[in-house]
Every structure is written in C-alpha cells, then in structure tokens.
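I hope you will forgive my troubling you with a question about protein structure. The record follows directly beneath this note:
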Amino acid sequence: MEVVRKDYLPHVTEEKQHNHQIKRPKKQKKNKFRLLKVATACSISCLLMLGLVVVVGYASTTELKHEILSLNKQLEEVEANRDKLKVELEKLSKSRWIEAEAEGRLGMVYPLPENTYYFSVNSTKVSLLTNELNNNMNDKESTGPDKDGFLSRTISKFVALLNI
C-alpha cells in the first residue's frame, strides 16, 4: 500500500501544482475584470455628471432667457407709456387746446371791445415812481426789520401805482 500511496501522492501533487498554475491566471483575470468594472463605473459616473452639468447649464440659460423676455416686455410697456405721455404733452402745449379748455371748463371768454379800457401812461412819470419805490425799498432793507408790516407795504405800493 505504501507503494501505491507513493505513486498516488506524486500524482496528486502534480495535479495540485497544475491546478495552482491555472488558478493564478484566473485571479489575474478577475483583477482585470474588477479593474474593467471600476473603470466602466467611473466613466459612466463621469458621463452622468457631465450630463447633469449640461442640463443645469441649459436650465440656467433658459431661466435667463425668460428673465430677458420679461424685461423686454417691461421695456416695451415703459416705452409705450412714454410715447403716450409725449402725445399728451404735445396736446397740452398747443395753444388752441389751451384756449378750448379755458373756454369749455373754466368759462373764460375774450373781452368785448366795450369792456376793454386803455390807459395812457407817461413813461417819465413811471420811471420816476419806479426809482422812488426802489429807493424806499432799499431804505427799508437798510434800516432793519419791517415796522409797518405786510398790509401797509401792499397798500402803499397800490397807492403808488394809482398815482401813475
């Protein structure tokens, strides 16, 4: 039995050695597959991240486009309002419209010839009175505070104008 065993044992050891030699390349292949799987997973995740960045970029671009469109719409509304105000300003600045409003809303009419009074004014007398008024005003300003008051000054100016 020993002989058989001896024969059997070397045969078993050869098979084991042969099996060990076969298993080692299989482990390397598994490592290669693992590396391939990791590389594939990394590339897929990179592609997903790149796709996510592109989608976020498009979303922000679309949001900015909507904001630009709303601002353009507001600009058009402001320009239309400005044009309306320009038209209204032109309308208000025309003298015919002013006359029509004065006659219609305020009831104003042009004076009739019988209601018109003309005064002849002597220009020398007017200049003398103007100088006298200016001198009186300068004297009052130089003397200090007003003693007469607003009412007396107004009455004196009115009397001076009637003396013309």
